[in-house]
Design goal:
- The chain is an alpha/beta fold.
- The chain folds into two domains: 206 residues, Rossmann fold, CATH 3.40.50.300; 145 residues, 3-Layer(aba) Sandwich (Rossmann fold).
- It is built from 14 helices and 13 strands.
- Helix 1 packs across helix 4 and helix 3 packs across helix 4.
Length: 412
């Protein structure tokens, strides 16, 4: 029960407003430790309630300790890699902050600078930001982070993958050295741990599920197909099976756009979401998908973790991801908060090694299927006797004496 986690009456009211009834495992473990002011490294799959696990204790800690002056100052900073994630975190923060009287806002690229600056000048207690816009505000002298008491790095592995870490280092190096640090991510590789280790002071590790393990509730299948027939197979699958609320992943932005045009010609309502789309375009596509205006949302991996939509029935990997770990993030979109779902992967002849990497990572041989009545041309079908020896489990940071007391960028 949330009543047993140390949250006060105002935050318990916020929990009810957000529709939570029972805490998820990450919330159950992280909230009491964060309330106690501990540094955390928390590894849990997407869709497990990570955002509330850090937002709720942050708001309570800030409300329990007055700031250094009478006016609002940024005392908690959440850095996250994408606009979509920033908006989702901000939405949770605003709902919770209504009960505590605090103010939260998000700043990110893709929208006008002036309105976000105006929000900051009205006073903010908790700021959610993407690295690029945050640095922009700092360089223009429009942002004061000298009062930050709590730092959250959300999806640190994705920030590394997207090349944001140099920017993040510059931002973190500008913060007060004495602060609480909370690191939340879906996967925790040794490389990430080496990079972020100096950010933390005697951290406590929470590892809810083994890193890069797919959601158990997702039924998974592979459809071997010639690469030139992937589009036809998708249209046929959508029509024959009557699939609704489908998230399709492609490897490139151009393919996502091209696929949407084909779907439209086939009278299947779809929208694309990727980094070449403006923020209003991306938000319109996402909102339309949530409302049911679009049956299909076509996305690339760069925005995958920012897609938080309930009741997605199917995830279809139109292209298998180059990184096996991204497969886990993709299929997790259809298993939000314990719900079930189906993940279908199209596999061309040039993707068989990607399939092997995925199967080794998850320790499971995925079943291969055909769509009845579809006229396949030449393709490669993996042997049913193939093995899937699992790779060793990934390490999770448990703290080190060298990291204790150090801050990112000091002495460098």
């Amino acid at each position: 029960m949330f009543d047993n986690l140390g949250l006060d009456a105002r935050l318990l009211a916020a929990v009810r407003d957000m529709g939570y009834t029972q805490p998820t495992p990450i919330q159950e473990q992280a909230i009491p430790l964060a309330l106690a002011g501990k540094d955390l490294v928390a590894c849990a799959q997407t869709g497990t309630g990570k955002t509330a696990a850090f937002i709720l204790p942050i708001l309570q800690r800030l409300s329990g300790r007055p700031g250094p002056s009478g006016k609002r100052q940024i005392r908690a900073l959440v850095i996250t890699p994408t606009r979509e994630l920033a908006l989702q975190i901000d939405e949770v923060a605003r709902v919770a902050a209504r009960t505590t009287g605090q103010r939260a806002t998000a700043v990110h690229g893709g929208v006008a600078y002036a309105p976000q600056l105006a929000q900051l000048r009205r006073g903010v207690d908790l700021l959610v930001a993407t690295p690029g816009r945050l640095l922009d505000l700092q360089m223009r002298g429009d942002l004061d982070l000298s009062h930050v008491e709590i730092l959250v790095l959300d999806e640190a592995d994705r920030m590394l993958d997207m090349g944001f870490w140099p920017d993040v280092r510059r931002i973190v190096d500008s913060l007060p050295e004495v602060r609480q640090n909370l690191l939340f991510s879906a996967t925790m590789t040794p490389h990430v741990l080496r990079v972020i280790g100096a950010t933390l002071t005697d951290p406590i590790t929470i590892n809810i599920t083994p890193s890069a393990t797919p959601v158990d509730e997702v039924e998974q299948a592979v459809y071997p197909v010639h690469h030139e027939q992937k589009t036809d197979l998708l249209v046929e699958l959508l029509n024959k099976r009557g699939l609704d609320r489908v998230l399709v992943f492609t490897r490139t932005k151009h393919r996502a756009d091209r696929l949407c045009r084909v779907l439209e010609r086939s009278r299947i309502r779809g929208a694309a979401i990727h980094s070449n789309r403006t923020q209003p375009q991306r938000q319109k596509a996402l909102d339309g998908f949530k409302r049911g205006d679009y049956r299909v949302l076509v996305a690339t991996d760069i925005v995958a973790r920012g897609i938080d939509v309930d009741r997605i029935s199917h995830v279809i990997n139109f292209d298998l991801p180059a990184k096996a770990e991204d497969y886990v993030h993709r299929i997790g979109r259809t298993a939000r908060a314990g719900a079930g779902g189906m993940a279908i992967s199209f596999m061309g002849a040039d993707e068989i090694n990607c399939l092997r990497d995925i199967e080794r990572l998850i320790g499971t041989v995925l079943p291969c299927h055909d769509l009845e009545g579809f006229e396949y041309i030449q393709r490669v079908v993996p042997s049913p006797e193939r093995s899937a020896k699992r790779v060793p489990p990934r390490l999770v940071y448990a703290g080190s004496k060298r990291a204790a007391g150090r801050r990112l960028g000091r002495g460098r």
